[in-house]
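Morning!

As promised:
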Amino acid sequence: MKKIISVVLVLALCAGLFALSGCGGTQTVELDTSKLVGNYDVPELRGTEINVYNWGEYISDGSEDTLNVIQAFEDLTGIQVNYTMYDSNEDMYAKMKSGGASYDVVFPSDYMIARMIEEGMLQTIDFANVPNYSYISEDFKDLYFDPDNAYSVPYTGGMVGLIYNTTMVEGTPDSWEIMWDEAYSGQILMFNNPRDAFGIAQFLLGQSVNTTDAAQWQAAADKLIAQKPVVQSYVMDEVFDKMESGEAAIAAYYGGDYLTMADINPDLAFVYPKEGTNIFVDSMCIPANANNKAAAELFINFMCEPEIALANAEYLCYLCPHTAVLEDERYTLRGNEVLYPQQEVKTEYFYNLDRDTQDLLSRLWEQVKLA
Amino acid sequence: MKKTSLTAKLVNAPYIVWSILFILAPMIMVVYYALTDRDGNFTLSNLTSLSEYTETFGRSIWYAFLATVICLLLSYPLAYIMARSKASRQRTLMMLIMLPMWMNFLIRTYSWITILNNTGILNTLFEAIGIGRVQMINTPGAVILGMVYNFLPYMVLPIYSVMCKLDQSLIEAAQDLGCNGRAVLKTVIFPQSLPGVISGITMVFVPSVSTFYISQKLGGGKFMLVGDAIEMQFQSAYNYNLGAALSLVLMLMIVICMLIMNRFTDNSEEGAMLF
């Protein structure tokens, strides 16, 4: 008898948990389908599925009163979306290269797009099926990695900048030099990935981040080794916690992410250093081995819908390449100084490095880490 | 030798297929990659270039060794006390040890960052009671703590299961024949519990020596362990060959360590089962 009672109690508990999670998960924001520009009633695609491979937390997902974009697309088109996530271009590349999975839409960054085009991993998009491409700003067309605008539809962009805590840093820094300043020893956070970390040293040294000169890379490595004693830790996403809590005073990270941090810790400030900084664009692409190209193009077109792009831009806080969003009064980040700075910021894209330079870079990065 | 029946073969088949697919095949790939260059030609340069990593290997083994010793010192008395307490109490203690393992390993490690940070829970407490700030995060100590915390149950459980089976009458006999507490421990309890100790050591040492997540999060990415070096080769440097060479050497080192360990338990069946 006692056993039966406990079984019942356990079941009741589980049911309760389910009900709770159910509440949290229900969609609160409905998509007003009358505002959509494109046609999403494609009978022959109903019941098919697409595999979408995106960065983590890189789409409006229905949490905290946002629109669940994937759900809306599924409801509208009857296409099932298998949505999976990665946390670096390299992860995504390695997964696709290993051939273990086939995707219909991926979201690589600029240099990775160049590399994937070069290696034949992407196919051209039929823009007749993506009429909403016309909303993409001219600034985000004809970019170096896709000069003919054939393979990619820009989704977001961003620039790396210097984030600092105004209560811990004196004055207003305007140079990467502060990340080498002994006065802030043990309070500096550096990128834990080679390309971004070297980028900062290279901007400071006045080099191109795409140099093929081994001596320049070596000089940048020496610069990073010299910085090591003052660095608190090498981080990626841990930067949020550490800057929000005041654990560290200075960090280099993306402008969009700064906005998220500043929401929690208003003492944080942001600047684009005068030596220049890295700019990136993440675009939607269709892999060469996609199984359902038509649905992939429908999905990309849907992502470029003004309503959807607005929901994503609000959720992501990154630079938005969509002209209708930029003009939309409802866009809360319109004219934001961090995302859309008034004065010119000196920027440089990362290019895809040749194999020798890549090998050199990883060897030097190890030297930095081993030093 | 008895011929295996068809049923036995059928029962074994899934396990054999599993082993070939997920243990043997990857091992062969590791060896293949370690001994070839990017274009698939045979080379030893991957292995010879590992001399640069001597310090990394040394550090990994040293940290893993410390973590294992601390785990052993903590687990042994705990397992003994657990095994000798009432059945209901045993269940509670077991529950307490297992409970953290229900949570994801990554989340548990990440939580330690919040605890050990300079502005974290412990340091806030220290400052409140006047001790002042202690640098804990981004130190080797934090990494070893992370290893001990995460892998402690793997040490407790095998020792506990051996302790449960301990023949109580032998202890009584030893006491009757005039052994003092220390001698009982040394000559009766410890030798009998050795198989559990050995498998505990293996289960703590192996994951500790190859970890990369703990050192990245709690060590601040300032020093590399072998796991970090391997991860880097596969994830960002795309040098599968060097990564495989590192893995191969790491595996060999683990096997050698285990063989040395096993010499202490020549007659024990459980210890021998490791291989």
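The longest helix of chain B spans residues 54-84.

Hope this helps with the figure draft.
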